[in-house]
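Lab meeting, item 3. Inverse folding demo.
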């Protein structure tokens, strides 16, 4: 096969305990999936889950025990952190039932759904797509993927992010409005999931701004820490 120019390289994430890496297909994200975060964004009540995507090459892949770097993005004056549990799909499918959903998961990781909140807010107000607020370059830091067999109970795990050593978000994944299985059921009704898909499952309350020079340390219990510096 000859190409006009070099094809985009495969984006991949390291896997805890083995040399083979997880090649990424798509990045799906769930909106407003913790009640207290929905409230802080001005919404109440349980609504069906909704989704948006980030480009696969927006990942900032950070190895264990390393500090990744993320450039402060253009156009924004309100660059927000959203700490999230990330599901890594190992077996694809469509119309996956919640009862069968966990069989499709390869593992879990800690991720940050970084957001240009001012631009997202403007798009919401105008009824326009969120891409510019959510899907920009370097908007999706992620740590290594831990295979399912090696994780603790990810459905009842403390989740937090600190900025420069101070707590910003702290909750528990048991507070998810739509749990992991239900999320996969809804998502796979809309798209056929593929091995290599990542699902950012939503963020708890306490989202806020970071600036250049800040260091973020996020974690989900049992999945290690994700460290990223804004440069
Ligand atoms: Mn999010």
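The presenter then showed the designed sequence:
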């Amino acid at each position: 096969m000859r190409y006009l120019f070099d094809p985009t390289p495969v984006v991949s994430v390291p896997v805890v305990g083995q040399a083979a890496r997880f090649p990424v297909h798509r990045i799906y994200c769930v909106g407003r999936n913790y009640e207290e975060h929905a409230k802080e964004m001005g919404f109440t009540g349980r609504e069906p889950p909704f989704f948006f995507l980030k480009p696969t090459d927006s990942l900032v892949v950070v190895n264990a025990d390393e500090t990744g770097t993320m450039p402060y993005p253009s156009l924004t004056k309100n660059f927000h952190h959203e700490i999230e549990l990330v599901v890594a799909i190992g077996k694809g499918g469509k119309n996956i039932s919640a009862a069968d959903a966990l069989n499709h998961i390869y593992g879990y990781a800690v991720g940050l759904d970084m957001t240009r909140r001012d631009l997202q807010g403007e798009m919401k107000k105008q009824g326009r797509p969120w891409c510019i607020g959510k899907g920009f370059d370097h908007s999706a830091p992620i740590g290594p993927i831990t295979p399912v067999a090696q994780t603790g109970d990810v459905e009842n795990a403390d989740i937090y992010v600190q900025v420069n050593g101070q707590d910003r978000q702290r909750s528990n994944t048991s507070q998810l409005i739509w749990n992991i299985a239900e999320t996969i059921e809804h998502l796979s009704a809309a798209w056929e999931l593929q091995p290599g898909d990542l699902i950012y499952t939503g963020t708890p309350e306490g989202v806020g701004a970071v600036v250049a020079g800040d260091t973020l340390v996020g974690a989900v219990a049992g999945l290690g820490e994700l460290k990223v510096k804004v440069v």
